[in-house]
Amino acid sequence: MKKLAELFLLFSIFICALNAKETVQIGVLAHKNYESTHMMWDPTAEYLNTKIPEYDFHIIPLRFEEFLPYLRDKKIDFVITNSAYYVDLESSFGISRIATLKNKDFNGKAQTEFGGVIFKRASNTTIQSVEDLKNKKFAAVDPESFGGWIMALRELKELGIRDKDLKTTFYGTHESAVFAVLDGKADAGTVRTDTLERMAAEGKININDFTLLEQKNYPDFFYQTSTRLYPEWPIATTKHTSNAMAEKVAVALISMPQHSEAAEASKSMGWTIPLDYQSIHECLKELEMGPYKHFREDAFISFVKQYWYYGVIALLVLFLSQIIVLYIARINAKLRDTQRELEILNDSLEEKIREKTEHLYNESVKLEEAYLNEKYLRSILRTVADVNQMLITTRSKYELIDKATLCLSSNESFKRAKISLIEEGELRVAAAYGIGEDKTITWIERKAHEEKKNLMITDLDDARMSPECRENIASHGIKAIYALPLKSSTFSDEVIGVLTICTGRENGFNIEEQKMIEELSGDIGFALNSFAQQKHINELYDERLESYESFIDAMVNMIEQRDTYTAGHTVRVSHYAELIAREMELSEKEIQLLVESAKLHDIGKVVTPDSILLKPGKLSNLEYELIKEHAKAGYEVLSNVHLYKELADIMIDHHERYDGSGYPYGKKGGEISLLGHIMAVADSFDAMTTNRIYKPRKEVKESLIELSELSGTWYHPAVVNAAIKVLADVSIDTTINQIGHTPLEEERLSYFFKDRLTKLYNEDYFMMVINGRSRHSKPKKFTVISLIDFHRYNKAFGWERGNTMIADFADFLMQKLPERLMFRVWGDRFVIADYEGNLDEVLSESPLVEAGIKTAIKEIASTADNLEGMLRDKVI
User: Fold this and answer.
1) What sign results for the dihedral spanned by CA atoms 749, 752, 753, 758?
2) What secondary structure letter does DSSP report for 20?
3) Antiparallel, parallel or unpaired: β 22-29 and 55-62
């Protein structure tokens, strides 16, 4: 019995170990105290535990000085801290931001930036301006506090006030600094923006007891401020945290609802993609703080700190022999070389940081746009699919009207939906849902009915509207009204009613949305007419299904129009899939299902943002994760309609793999339908045999060899065998590619291949021209203009003025050589293709001459060996 109990205990321990979650520690800067930090951030940890259940998240409040040992000993996995301290820790410990906090102001709006205030008591008449602060008692939060010291210090320094001119006392918290000024312990002080307003709202102070110095005003920024604005607090991942965990946390935080318990507790509106922190680098560099502290030390102090032990050794062995003296001299020479190398590395540090932050900012903007666009299009698709399902399944006219109107009004973008019908020769409201309770017919419905055409109203101050109507529109935030006549069929002008939809979106209804609503209004009108024509119910039922299929085809066509490269992709995949299925002797019914499903297999790409779908290059990991969502999105659209459920069940498998390595569900072997296996091979074959910018197409023989090599891993062996037989002789259109052929397509590609600063082609497009993979013919020679020692100009006058000089020089070249193909490469070099004139004479008039910037010119034949290396060589 005792042994049985011991075995049971061991088994229980084993089960607990299997179910144990990995603990994740989030270090948070405690700018008040530990208790308030837990109250503010514990809900965020609970939110992450809900969204990512395989981990157990905990909040660890830390003071400034506590972060260093925790990061050194790898006791925390993520960091939430102020912006300047993040930049310092990024340099010291390699942490990397994944999201930025959206602070909530008193107007309920999101603020992703903050600043600092420099204030005094209103009754203190001895201080009228910043110049009066010299030798005055000054209250701040902490030497490491960005909003409570560093921001103000930068402004004061620019106004001639140095930190040693102030009698500064650090009080530990923002509120303590405010009370020190209020109680007369300090003449003036500084805290982060929103501190005075929040303390006043909590009844702790009267905000009128204080006056701001050097007050600044910024559009859309609610709080008083005396400084520049900088990005809000970030959350960053440490070097030892896995990329997979960091990516899950980033997606979860960016998806946090703005009114969630976690957002409310942190007094924020959730998180957004990581912002550009270059302005903080500039601030810290100017003050020689954080990662730029070493700028304060002279060469001798730096030398002593780093090589003091060599001096000790030198003293010890000085008495041994003259040989040791010579050895030490050699060591000193090496040290001087090392010091010169460090100086060169310091010169390049700023450029590397700028490039990294610019890249992160651009990627973050794309991610946020991708997320918002996906969310919006997905909601519209679901609403349209739900209403179309009602059209097919509902058997009562008024039940259909009521359910369809209610479904449309439930979409978060639509403020109101109304369906009006002709009854007894008069237009009457049949159903209306959404904001307001008015169920009367307006002039908008009457005009749409009388003119028998769609009516878009964006001028909401139209005099034809009643005062009550205009007041209702203004109070409920309506931005546009769309009224569409409901016709009995696509071949008749008979209007049987009107569909009216109001939107709250700032830009009204976009083109894609209008097309979907127009298609839907035709479906609703057709469905309503079918109830009045019971003797033709079967015929109308078939036409209704055909109308829905036309809508699906329109969606597929709209996707292919968004990306000319994929035009015809679904047709080719359908053709290849049919050939394989017939070789495998499947039934005609199965072949028809496969062909129809193949036509719709990429319908889910309507939710994929343009910045990802149209990207003419390889996708990042996160972009790839977003585009993978198209399989689920397409399945959701089709599976909601009973007659398309079979097609959806086939389509969902076209990215699954035989060995379980595919998506979206990781199915393998027999879990994947045979038709899904066939579609996967057909889809991959078309991808292999068509051109991409970053990868040329493969020949049919090469593609079939690759399919054969992946047989039994990615693809079903029987399907591959059939494909090898029937696809060996197919004809491939070799003109399909991603290169722009029209001005519109060229403008689309310019997003990826034009330099943001100068609008010239960038080095990515330059390499395409060199390799003969662009719409421009390969030049015979290149003329390289190099700006000599331009980094010294940047160092002397600042990066902003340096960027202005680069842009002015590019404008000069485009004006002087308007017909030439030109590039900006590697920062300070410009390349002109096939130029035959006197370039020295042209450059003598450039803005570089007045600025004292010298140039060097070098000509290189495009047929030269190691062309890229020669272009990168320094031009003398």
Assistant:
1) positive
2) P
3) parallel
Distance of alpha carbon 148 from its chain centroid, rounded? 30
Dihedral, 698, 703, 705, 708 alpha carbons, nearest 10: 160
The Cα-based distances of 668 to 565, 647, 648, 664 in angstroms read 30, 19, 18, 11
Long-range contact pairs involving 395-399 (C-beta distance under 8 Å, separation at least 24): 396/531, 397/528, 397/531, 397/532, 398/430, 398/431
Q: Evaluate if residue 674 carries a pLDDT over 90.
A: yes
**3-state secondary structure (DSSP) of residue 411:** coil
Distances (CA, A) of 626 to 193, 385, 444, 616, 632: 36, 22, 41, 16, 11
| Highest mean pLDDT pick, 224-228, 474-478, 531-535 | 224-228
Helix (H) or strand (E) segment spanning residue 209: none
Q: How is residue 274 written in tokens?
A: 């990581």
Across residues 198-220, what is the average pLDDT? Answer: 91
Dist. CA 332–CA 808, nearest whole Å: 46
* Listed residue (619, 719, 736) closest to 674, CA to CA: 719
| Contact by Cβ (8 Å): 486, 521 | yes
Residue 876: its pLDDT value, please?
44
- Give the least confident one: 108-122, 197-211, 287-301, 701-715: 287-301
Cβ(61)–Cβ(30) below 8 Å: yes
Question: Which strands sit side by side in the sheet containing 455-457, from one edge to the other?
Answer: 426-434, 414-423, 495-503, 480-487, 455-457
Burial letters 529-558, b for 16+ CB under 10 A, else e: bbbeeeeeeeebeeebbebbbebbeebbeb
Average pLDDT, the chain: 84
Question: Residue 130 is which amino acid?
Answer: V
**How far is Cα 103 from Cα 272, in angstroms, rounded to an integer?**
10
What are the backbone angles phi and psi of residue 320, rounded to the nearest 5°? -80, -50
d(CA 260, CA 596): 43
728 Cβ contact list (under 8 Å, min separation 6): 700, 701, 704
235: three-class secondary structure by DSSP:
strand
How far, in Å, CA of 457 to CA of 448, rounded? Answer: 11
Tokens of 649: 């069940």
The neighbouring-strand residues paired with 482 are: 456, 501
Q: Dig out the tokens for 677 from the structure.
A: 């296996």
Name the DSSP class of 249. H
SS3 content of the chain, % helix, strand, coil (to 5): 55, 15, 30
How confident is residue 6, by pLDDT bands cut at 50, 70 and 90? low
SS3 861: strand
Under 8 Å between Cβ of 225 and 115: yes
Percent of the chain topping pLDDT 90: 33
Distance, in Å, from the CA atom of 730 to the CA atom of 727, rounded to the nearest integer, reads 5
Distances (CA, A) of 10 to 2, 160, 708: 13, 72, 49
Q: Residue 58 above 80 pLDDT?
A: yes
830: which strand partners? 785, 824
Strand order from edge to edge, sheet including 116-121: 167-170, 137-140, 188-192, 116-121, 210-213
Q: Which residues have a Cβ under 8 Å from the Cβ of 312 and sit 6 or more positions away?
A: none
Q: In angstroms, what CA-CA distances link 546 with 107, 671, 677?
A: 50, 32, 28
Contact 152, 226 (CB under 8 A): yes
Residue pLDDT, tens place only, 736-779: 666 655 555 556 566 677 888 888 888 878 887 777 666 777 88
- CA distances in angstroms from 796 to 31, 126, 344, 801, listed in the order given: 37, 38, 16, 10
Please give the Cα distance from 714 to 701 (Å, whole number): 18
* pTM attached to this predicted model: 0.39
DSSP states of 686-741: HHHTS--SSSPPPPHHHHHHHHHHTBTTTB-HHHHHHHHHHSTT----TT--SS--
Instruction: Report the 10 Å Cβ neighbour count for 114.
Output: 25
